[in-house]
Amino acid sequence: MTSPTTSTMPPPTTTSNGSTPTDIEKTSQSDKSADNTTQSEDGFQYPSAKSANAVILALCIVIFLSALDRLIVATAIPQMTNEFHSLDDIGWYGSAFLLTSCCLLLLAGRIYTYYSPKMVFLIVIVIFEIGSLICATAPNSTVFIVGRAIAGIGGAGVMNGAVTLLSCTVPLAKRAKYQGMFGAAFGLASVVGPLLGGVFTTKVTWRWCFYINLPIGAVAIAVIAVAMKAMPGENKGMPLKQKFLQLDPLGALLIIPSLICLLLALQWGGAKYDWTSGRVIALLVVFAVLFVAFCLVQVFMRENATIPLHIIKNRSILAAQLYVFCLNGSFNVVVFYVPLWFQVIQNVNAIDSGIRTFPLILSMVVGIIASGVLTGKIGYYTPLAYAASIIAPIGIGLMATWKPDTSKGMWIGYQIVVGFGNGIGFSQANMAAQTVLRRRDVPTGASIVQFCQLLGGTVFIAVGQNLLTSSLAAGLAPLVPGLDARTVGNLGAVELRNLVVPDQLDALLNVYNDAIRQIFLMAAGLASAAGLGALGLEWKNVNKAEKEHGETKAPQEGV
């Protein structure tokens, strides 16, 4: 099922001297007197190769920055919990960023559709930098979480903006290769991030994990400002009220508090409060009511909704949502809790735990790059989504067999399986959105996919935290009389070793190991469920789809 659009081929595009460009070479010649652009088979004017390369370099820098921020934190979390004395907040250190990103991702898609993508992109980077500065200077856990939330506001527009700008920079048939370059940038940050996080945490202070974002962000802003041409929006000349209504403010007012209530319920249920407590039940009820209201508003608003009906009803978009919700949710859980396993169970410092996650990250990078090359070669992304939903859960299931005395070969090998499995599935949902939708719908479609991607991470990191604290409280009760989930939550991850006498240390480590194993088992089941989404993806050839439903002209200039 494809999006219900009609498309007619436009008349041949002419240059300023009246010639009709029929291929790239003729366009390049006319560029000397015109706009230095290249026309694709669907009639859209793409930038020249030189301009495109500069834009892609800028996008890679921003993706590197965003990935570095997400991955550098994991190795520093144990030391942060020790300084702030609040293990109970560990889930918020990741979830605060993901929550605000989730809440604003859909709105970001509308903004990218109607306003200048370049200006929006620059603004979200600045917001991200402000959040990083707050995190770096945070005096306590609460301020740090606020900083992560602000950084998440900026992060909401990063990957969506990169996909949007890529769709206006190179033809669809070439995008898989360039998304492989995005993966390489992500991979470089993934390798450097945990190591830098460990070095900063051990040798200087964990705060440098966030200070480092400032110079990298400044470079990204400078490159984008210089290299990227101003890109038009679609609302030039519209009344201010109409511009505002295009963003579906009512939908935003419903979905944002709805998601906040959901995450609070997941964060508090079973840890700070019982699942049967009035607070948790009230949060879940409010979430359900607001979410249903949001869905009704979307139906009523139709094509002016945050999620237009013709996009959400597309089979591949529906399948991609389930696919990324499960696959990314499982991988976020793994990335978040593997460093914790190394530091607590194997008693290594932050640097060593970062180094020991290299197999996971490097194999993921190899998978991302390989998937970009293979998709470009065979023309289809669906087979790789199938493979990811098989390989990833097998690897995570193997990780759930880890014990305190697990050999080096086993924890390296299992990480490689998990990383490669997730890597080959990393870009497939975004490729689906770009393939089955018209160009003007790509920002919204990509936002929907990335919304589910981040929501999966947000929800299941919180679920993992709840499993961890509840399992620890139950398992440690015989060793430490009077211990409950709230007490466990108020301790740092490494400080738990000090709860027992040396003779009981092995028992404590077994309890902690079993708690993390439960989290891995949950992640394995989640990755398996991604296969249901993969089965729903249509078989669309990326080398042919652009001619079928691409926009027939570039958007008109606007703000």
TrEMBL record:
Residues 23-34 have a biased composition (Basic and acidic residues). Residues 1-44 are annotated as: Disordered. Residues 55-542 form the Major facilitator superfamily (MFS) profile domain. GO terms for cellular component: plasma membrane. GO terms for molecular function: transmembrane transporter activity. It is a multi-pass membrane protein. Pfam families: MFS_1. The keyword Membrane applies. The chain crosses the membrane at residues 54-78, 90-108, 120-139, 145-168, 180-199, 205-228, 249-268, 280-301, 322-342, 354-374, 381-400, 412-433, 515-537. Its main location: membrane. Keywords: Membrane, Transmembrane, Transmembrane helix, Transport. Residues 1-22 have a biased composition (Low complexity). It is found in: Membrane. This is Major facilitator superfamily (MFS) profile domain-containing protein.
